[in-house]
Structures are given as C-alpha cells and as structure tokens.
Amino acid sequence: MKEESVLALARRVGVESDWTDARGRGQRVALDALVRILGALGFPCSTAAEARESRDRLLARRESGRLPRLVTAEAGQAFHLQPAGTEGDVAAELLEEGGTRRSLLLRRQGKTLVAPGIAVPGYHRLHVADREVQLAVAPCRCVSIADLADGRKRWGMAIQLYALARAGDGGIGDTTALCGLLASAARHGADAVALSPVHSLFAANGRHISPYAPSNRLFLNPLYADPSDALPGINVPSHPELERTELIDWPRAARTKYAALREIFDGLKDNLPPALTEFIAERGERLHEHALFEAVHAHWMAAGQCQADWRRWPQEWRGPAMPAVVSFAAASPREVLYHQFLQWLAAASFTRAQSTARDAGMRIGLISDLAIGMDPAGSHAWTRPGDLLTDLNVGAPPDIYVPAGQDWGLVAISPMALVDSGFEPFIATVRAALRHAGGLRIDHAMGLMHLWLVPRGAAAADGAYLNYPLDDMLRLLALESHRHNAVVVGEDLGTVPPEFRSRLREAGVAGMDVLWFQREGDRFRRPALWRSDALAMTTTHDLPTVAGWWSGSDLAERARLGISGGEDEAARLSSRTMLWGAFVEEEVAPADAAAGEDVGAAVDRALAFVARSPSPLMVVPVEDLMARTAQPNLPGTVDEHPNWRRRLPV
C-alpha cells in the first residue's frame, strides 16, 4: 500500500487528510487512521489491490453519466448538468411545481450541459431525453431575522422545556407550561423562544435523557405533550411528589406519564379520532417504521436493560423488514398504533404552542433546535441504516480545551446517501424541525461543510474531517426557510474558518455571538463590533450562566469533578475586572463602582451590555433572566453533574 494512493483516494472521497488546529497549526491525519476511516466509508484500501478497486469503483460512479436524483440551483441563475452519451445542445422539458410546463434548451459547455436560470423557486421536474431529475430552485438566501424584525431590535428567550414547571405536569415541563410562558413573554415584548431539541428519545428507556442524542430527529418526544391538546377534556393525573422536586426523576416521571398516556389510548378502544387516522396516513411509512421500532424496543427492554441496544438483538430483529419483526408487527398492531398515537399527541401539542406564540404577536415564535447526529442504537439507525455512517462517530478534533479530542458517540447522515437519495433525509429532517416552529437552530453548523468523524472504537484524535455538499444544503435550507417563513441560525461557536462564516452570511443563516467568546486579547469586544447578522447571547446551555461565571461557581463545580477548564480563579478575577471595565466603557455600569461581589448587578449589566449589540435578535437564556448560577449541561460529564435535570423554581 502506497501513501500516495491512500491520499488520492481520500481526496476523491472527500476525506481531508490535512487540517488546521485551534492554534492555527497544520496537522495531517495518520495514514493508518485514514485507511480505517476510508474503510468505514465503504472504500477499503489496506492493500494496493483494495485501494485500486476502491478508486476504480469511485471513478465508475462519477463517470457513469447518470443524472443525480436532485440538483439544486439558485433562482434566476444558470446551473450545470453532467449527463453522458449526448452530443451538442439538448432539448428538455421543465415541469414546475405549480403545474406549468415549458421547453428548455440545455447548451453544451465542455462535458456539461448548462441550463438557463429558472425564476420560480420550488421543487420542479426536468425531463432530459428519457431521464428525469428533480430541481430544487431556491431563493438566494434564507428568510433572515432582519426580514422579520421590521427594522427594530427584537429579543427572545432560550429555555429547556423540561425545566418549566406547572401544577399537573407530572414532573416534566410540557407544552402547556410552554404556552403559558409564550403568552407571558409576548406581553413583555419577546418575539421568540428558543428550545433545546425536542426530538424523540426512547419511550422504553427513561434513563436516556440527553436531547442532543436523539433516537430519530423526524419525530417528537411525547413526554412534552399535553393530551388535552388533541383530546379536549382528557388530562394526565397530577403527581405532586414528582412535580415539586428541584431535579427531575426522569425514569420515574417518564414511567408515570407513559402509563397515563397508555390508559388514555386504551380507553379509545377502536374509536380512533379521525384526526389520528389522517395523521397516520399523512406521515406514512417513516412514522410506521419509527412506531414499530418503539414497540420492538419496548419488547426487548422488557427482557432486561442489556437489550436496550438493537445492535445486540438477534440478527432476525435488526431491521423493520426482518422476518421476526414482520411477524411481531402482524401480531401486535395495537402496540405500533400506540406509538403512532403518541406522535399525534406530541404534534398537536407543539402545533398549539407555535399558534399561541404567533397569536400573541411574536414575530418568530418557537425556534427549534436540530441535533447534529443521532444515537446509533436509535430508531433512525434501525429503520434506515443506509442513510447513516454507522461505523463512524461524530466528534471534534483535539483543541486547547480538550487536548484528546471528542467522540460524541453519535452517527450522522452519509453525504453519499444524501446525493443518492436526492437529499431526502436532509429535506425531511429540516421539514420536521420547522413543522411547528418559526425558526431553526442548527447545532454544530460546521456539519453543513464537514464533520470530524471517528472510527468506532478509535481514539477521538484518530479522526478526520469528511466533506459535505455545503452549497446544496444551504440552497435547500433557503428553499425550506421561505416555504415555512422561518429563520435559520447556525451554531458557529469555537474554531470556525472565516470563509465558512462568510458563506453562512451570504446564505442568510444567522450566526451566534456569545458574550464569553467576544474577547480580543486583554479586553472584551465592544458590542458595537459584534455581528449584525448573528444572535446576541449572554451564554448557552453548555456554558456558565452569567451569575455562575461571576460568582465562580462554575470553577468550583469543575474543581469538584476534576475537570480542567480554560481559567483558574486568578484568571477569572482578572476576566471579571476586564468585563466590568467593558461595562463602564459602554456606560451600562457607573464609572465610580467597582467590580464587586453583587451577582445580581453583574447579571443586569451583562444583559444591558449584550443588548447594545447591532444584532436584530438578542436571545437570553432563562437562567440569566433569573440570575441562576447552575448551567443546564456541563460538557464532559454524564451523571457526575445533573445534566438536563434542573427544574425552574417558578
């Protein structure tokens, strides 16, 4: 095996053999790691013969001349096609989404055909000879926050839905509590409420609680539903002993609520509401597959905790078309129907929540959050493994704060599967996220361009970046943004190439400017120098709250758990003095006041400081509105810190 052949194969596949670290230094992926990653992608190259076969297969794929299933284009701009076996110009017929037919002439330009620009955005069909390709013609950019802000600076909140408390919620915040918050926030002038992911987790496993490790991003977590939204007059019984705790007892609260939902479902018997029947028909095969997974997963969970991961089930149970699963579905149709029912309840509840926000006058309403990947033991991986890179985990390369790199244990959609499927998994995911929202936050937005992927079982440092079709995905985001009249936000924190932020800006995808990262050398950057096309924020769920940072409680918690951080107490004291000086310079704190111990005053100053940003939308985590010290999640911990469990006291 020659290094040159592996590097050449990596370039053709889209694996970056060279990358730049957080200190700006060039790094090269080890040859053995490249071989392992390429093998996991389906291109073995551990020997010269394997490398040649993989190269030839890839070249044959690219030179087949087969039209892709979907081509993206910008409205009004010419685009290229690469069919084989044609000479000269080619006549084609365009069938627009609205039903209009018209003829096009595709002009030969070298090996490609150039199609004239199409002015009308939408999903159209282009017929070329005996072949057909879908065209996704997108506006030049997404609906922007400025478009909806109407020339005014707007504000919103960021919350953890489970943390909201109301009497009768059973111990887990739900959409009825959310509706109350939306109405109240709107009265105070808020135009948005950003949620952490509400994707489906595992109904049979109440211990799996991280919203960023979903089972399937196309579906919702039924624990957030209020059944009375779909079935007026039906309520879940109250459980004060679960509702009055500071920390959520997820396993117990989940069991209790699912038992109540099961009782409601059983009470329907065969009298299914027409709306449920319509919902099942509308959501189709994907809903059926997800519900089947949940039913089969519950079946195996009943056999013991060790059966939580479908990859450990007998072979004949490892997919929806396997014989044992088909027999199970035929014998237990009502179990599958129950999980379809749960999704119907959840959809009705989130529909009501977004309607509440808009009816109250919010310009945006809910901003949903799209997790970067999925649990490999989840519904999507079981139902449609061909969509995913099942042998590679999403993570992050070594950096200043985590020298060993990170492996998040999540799987991502395959870029080749995206192209082969006409981007169906991506389009379906974006539509699901925007179905009940006026905005979408994309977690780890760098995944639109490339992802750091780690072979299963390897060290996180032995990963590499895999390229994704950025231009196509941005055009699809712009098209779906306009179809839903929704804004798109990309989480672009950390080490991000400047050209990536420029590309997001051109596409109308807002970035995120967070107070803690607005530093230049020995000073905090003045708010006037923050971006005008990014959310302005004090903090995020993964970072210290203002009160926690000011008081140093985050440092104390890290010290208690033995987690290294970016600052010690002396450095924090210096940073506090520096931040107070920025407050004084910005005239949100009096010049004759010192950076004292008053946490409440510091939080007020920080909010006023961030509000001076030119951003059209300031999003404030509810923990900062309440001057709470504890952050919802502490990266690098699982159970050592009460991640995703804290309830708000009001």
Compact description:
Helices cover about 35% and strands about 20% of the residues.
Can you characterise this structure?
The chain is α/β, with parallel strands linked by helices. It is 36% helix and 18% strand. The strands form 6 sheets. An 8-stranded parallel beta sheet has the order 21-18-15-12-11-26-25-22. A 7-stranded mixed beta sheet has the order 4-10-9-6-7-8-5. Helix 1 (3-13) runs parallel beside helix 3, helix 8 (274-301) packs across helix 10 and helix 13 (424-434) runs parallel beside helix 14 (470-484). The longest helix has 28 residues, at 274-301. It is globular and about 80 Å long. The protein starts with a helix and ends in a 25-residue tail after the last helix. The model has no long low-confidence stretch (mean pLDDT 94).
